[in-house]
Amino acid sequence: MDTLVKPEPTVPMACRSCRVRHGGMCEVLGPVELARLAACSRRTRHGSGEALAVESDAVHGYANVTRGTVKLSRVLRDGRQQLVGLQFAPDLMGRLFSSESPLSAEAATEVELCRIPRDVLEGLVADSEGLKQRLLEQALQDLDEAREWMVTLGRKSAVERVASVLLLIATRMGGRDAHGNITLDLPIGRADMADFLGLTIETVSRQMSRLRREGVISVQGHRCVVIHDIEALGARSG
Amino acid sequence: MDTLVKPEPTVPMACRSCRVRHGGMCEVLGPVELARLAACSRRTRHGSGEALAVESDAVHGYANVTRGTVKLSRVLRDGRQQLVGLQFAPDLMGRLFSSESPLSAEAATEVELCRIPRDVLEGLVADSEGLKQRLLEQALQDLDEAREWMVTLGRKSAVERVASVLLLIATRMGGRDAHGNITLDLPIGRADMADFLGLTIETVSRQMSRLRREGVISVQGHRCVVIHDIEALGARSG
DNA sequence: CGCAGGTTTGAATGTCGTCAAACCAAGTGG
DNA sequence: CCACTTGGTTTGACGACATTCAAACCTGCG
Fold it and tell me: Which SS3 state, helix, strand or coil, does residue B232 take?
């Protein structure tokens, strides 16, 4: 299953999000906590499509996405699926205080995780004021994003939804080229876009073609999107 | 604006959620914190339709819903609206660590709040491990509910959505009568149901009529719903 | 009683889903 | 190098479901 990789000798990747988000040093954890984390965290690598957690299974641990993109999803009894979130590096992933996962998680691309066993993290959280703070902030941010997406699902048209997901991915993964265009390597295919947007594959494809005809984007080989006019895309996103 | 009511002499209502959820005593706050809360919290009463917080306004405080129902919503620039949550008593409401509210909050019914000024709560949180824990749990629960609702918005048909909202309200507000039927006094009208479900008023109304024709529910005077067959309603909710 | 607001119902329209076929890109083996 | 396969994507024709617009209808209240 999981390929265990030896822990980093220095600062574990679990703290990368702290460093990234708070700038410079790790303000959240003291040296003692860092040592405990370093001792217990394991870096694992997963291929695209690999299941990382299954709905209603026991939660084994918490993880920090250090590379790649993870899909979070829920399914109805009859098989209809809805993606409820995308986690990009360096997001924290997991669920404290409930013994079973309310979601499934699957690697969308090649993914690298820094995993922390459940009991270790809960012990750390009980002791460390700073870590609990960090987790609370992440939960509140995830909550805001989920509610933001509820507007997309409840009130936006098909084009607006597709424009919205492109913007979302652009803000998390986009790189600007020489002409100021934004280039994306989509971490998900049309099927996942459809499940994220509450649409069908065909509708997603049609709206992509439409944005292409309108000159807002161009597409190279299905997975690579160039955003020519980010303003126009924003306007198109509702 | 807000009608200030004198604080309770004994345990402030702000702790009601602790007692309700953890059973019996307040495990979260010690006597010192309780005293600070009691000194600073104010109970306020609001009429149906009154705005409690406005999107992108400064956050003035945190509140505990002690009676009634509050609607949380977001609007798109062109006026399309989406309800992103309903808060029933005794939910905690508010948003730490961001200076402006990401949502609007409005009283759906007559509402009674126990308000705590922002700075007081943040001070308390900094000191009290237990309170931070409690807030984290509430945030995680809200997150689960938001994601659950994303499935409703993204993947369910109109009947399923209406059945879902009736079930949601039933679990939070429903009372059983002598025959085992569940009786609801809807805290929101058809327009708000539509905004919560991502539908139009007319579609909500049609699906209510449909469930009525099918004998799953009956309706008395628009606001009062009797659920005859909760199983069937569950089946109808997807 | 009669008004006002919210709700229900109907008919027509439009958007998105379904089904089916063509297409493309990437990989495999001759 | 090119035929061939495979999985994902695009496009088209058609149908279903939700929206729109409009009118009638309740229900609560003055």
Answer: helix
Same domain, A88 and A171: no
Tell how strand B42-46 and strand B111-117 pair up: antiparallel
Same domain, A135 and A174: no
CB pair distance less than 8 Å for A151 and B82: yes
Domains held by chain A: number? 2
**Rounded Cα gap, residues A140 and B135, in angstroms:** 10
Spans in chain B with pLDDT lower than 70: 1-30
**In sequence order, which residues have a C-beta less than 8 Å from that of residue A160 and are 6 or more positions away?**
A152, A236, A237, A238
Instruction: Examine the domain organization and report whether A149 and A163 are in the same domain.
Output: no
Q: Which long-range contacts (CB under 8 A, 24 or more apart) does A25-28 make?
A: A27/A130, A28/A128, A28/A130, A28/A131, A28/A133, A28/A134
* DSSP 8-state class, residue B81: E
Put the strands of the sheet holding A224-227 in their side by side order. A175-176, A182-185, A224-227, A217-220
Proportion of chain B in helix, strand, coil states, percent, rounded to 5: 40, 25, 30
Tens digits of residue pLDDT in A218-236:
999 999 999 999 999 999 9
Backbone phi and psi for residue B167, each to the nearest 5 degrees, phi listed first: -65, -45
Does the beta-carbon distance from A76 to B197 stay under 8 Å? Answer: no
CATH at B57? 2.60.120.10
- Give this prediction's pTM: 0.90
Rounded to whole angstroms, how far apart are CA atoms B220 and B190? Answer: 14
- Of B residues 204-233, those with CB within 7 angstroms of nucleic strand C are 204-206, 208-209, 219, 222-223
CA-to-C1' span, B223 to D28 (A): 12
